[in-house]
Amino acid sequence: MKKFFITCFVSVLISLSLSADVTLTSLYSDNAVIQRHAPVKIWGWASPSEKVTVTFVGKKLATKTDSKGNWSVVFPAQKAGGPHSMTVTGKNTIQRKNLLFGEVWVCSGQSNMQMNVGQAVDGDIEVLLAKDTDLRVLTVTNAGEQTPQKDVDGGWEMATGGQLKNFSAVGYYYGRELRRALGVPVGLIDNSWGGSSCETWIPQDVLKSDKRNQPYIETFAKKLAKFEKSDLTQHDQKRKALQERIKKAKSSGKIPPSPPTAMRDIRHGQHRPGNLWNARINPLLGYGIKGVIWYQGENNTRTESYIYRYTLPMMIKTWRKNWNSGEFSFYWSQLANYSRNRDKNGASPWAEIRESMTLTMQSTPKTGQAIITDLGEDKDIHPRKKLQIAKRLVRWALVKDYGFKLTYSSPMYKSHETKGNKIIVTLDQEVKTIDVRDVLGFTIAGDDQKFVKAQAKINKNKVEIWSDSISKPAAIRYAWAGNPVSNVINKTDLPLTPFRTDKWKLSSE
Predict the structure, then answer these.
(1) 236 DSSP assignment
(2) Could you identify which of 230, 345, 393, 501 might form a hypothetical disulfide with 451, taking C-beta atoms 3.0 to 4.6 angstroms apart as the criterion?
(3) What is the pLDDT of residues 467-480, one digit of tens each?
(4) CA–CA dist 233, 239 (Å, integer)
(5) Strands 462-466 and 432-433, how do they pair?
(6) Which domains does the chain have, with CATH numbers?
(7) Which residues contact 221 (CB under 8 A, 6 or more apart)?
């Protein structure tokens, strides 16, 4: 009998030790902004079959975890405002405070989205003047994994002072303009990582479902094989030595060294297909959002500019499907003018990826793009005029999502016809030139596909293009270079969208 009671007592102790505290996704930290006018899913983890109660917005909802310890409840949609408090009770109790309902936008992409306020033009002044406590920000920390992750590090903060300095500049300015226009709380989730490629933001099984993505899979497979064959042992040895140096530096009160780029483990970074979907998108799925702004593409201009017209729509479709928040808006910035590639008028990976973005906008509903071929810098791939970029993006949201009456889109090509030695292009808006009267940016070619600089004349929404050296023109292109010299704009100073009239094979095709 004594042995029986001892056994039971030990069993109870083991049971208690295995019982996990109830936890809540990091997305619901103090100061969170929650999407208004949408069902509110709240979720977390605890022991299997544990009862969990959530008290929020004057209601109490109870549930039990499943066999894997997952739990979730859904509260009804709420109007903008707050602050609200939330209590989650299981084996333990979690409390969250200062929660607001408003508009939530995800800011994603690579380094030009990641570039922070402190690095942008007049960033020091912006940090000094930031006093709006109803504009909140959350930064997702770097991670990249081959298996789906449940949660992210970090929590919500008010976009004031020092908290703002390291936040995405494009994201902050976008949110600030929304705050001014709407007068409701705005939450921004910075989910960007410099150097990331589009394919890292898509699940591998989705990528593999379309053979056009095979180059992504094959290219990285070769890099991975090389790494595991020749670099892995050396990498692990260097990492171990670095960890010892970090430990020693911390114990002596010194600043620990950072891992050099050469030591990054490519299995867990921002380049391996699927990695960022697993670690940085999967944990966000279910959190209500209004939409996404995206600034990425530079890392896909090497050989994938053409494929990008299939990859980007695939990514958008996959995000929307798995987020289960409807067909939310998705707006992106095209690539800025950059490099010395001004007037080659032939192969231009940057021009080709811009075309892929335009085609994505035309084929994918509830999308839009900001044209920024006038905001870049010759020698810096990271343009610092982030406020202007954000304002061009926010025009789309103000019109398409919030009903304001503004010019929101850059002018675009509609059609063309050939008359004698001229090609006459019809645009969807009236245009003019900026800086000089001469129309700059057009090139023209005959059937030999050799483009030369063209002369042009604007008449409202029509442009006549010609060259005295070409009697039988076959095609024209506009702003078709990495760093084009072009000056056609609309009445709101939005640049004409780069385009071509030909269907000739591209360098990345």
Answers:
(1) H
(2) 345
(3) 999 999 999 999 99
(4) 10
(5) unpaired
(6) 22-192 (2.60.40.10), 202-232+271-400 (3.40.50.1110), 413-500 (no CATH)
(7) none
